[in-house]
Specification:
Helices cover 72% and strands 0% of the residues. It is mostly helical and 81 residues long. Helix 1 runs antiparallel to helix 2. The longest helix has 30 residues. The chain is elongated, with a radius of gyration of 15 Å. The protein starts with a helix and ends with a helix.
């Protein structure tokens, strides 16, 4: 996955996030539905941002960014800070 595709996927997920908030305000979904769906979107965003950062770091180190694979959502969500 190239950076352009990553940026597009991130943008799409951010748009989805905004749509969910609007749907909640309009009463089309419940708070629990919004919460559950937002959690999934946020996890996917974290995974994509992680991949983009690692691809950029690889490129700076002279490694082909395409060799970098996405970490699982579970792994990304449990990184130690």
């Amino acid at each position: 996955m190239d950076e352009k595709t990553l940026v597009h996927q991130i943008s799409t997920l951010v748009d989805d996030e905004h749509k969910l908030r609007t749907q909640l305000q309009q009463g089309k979904i419940t708070e629990q539905e919004e919460h559950d769906r937002l959690r999934l979107i946020e996890e996917q965003l974290d995974q994509l941002w992680d991949l983009m950062r690692r691809r950029r770091a690889a490129k700076l180190q002279g490694v082909a960014p395409d060799e970098v694979e996405a970490h699982s959502i579970d792994e990304v969500e449990h990184y130690l800070q």
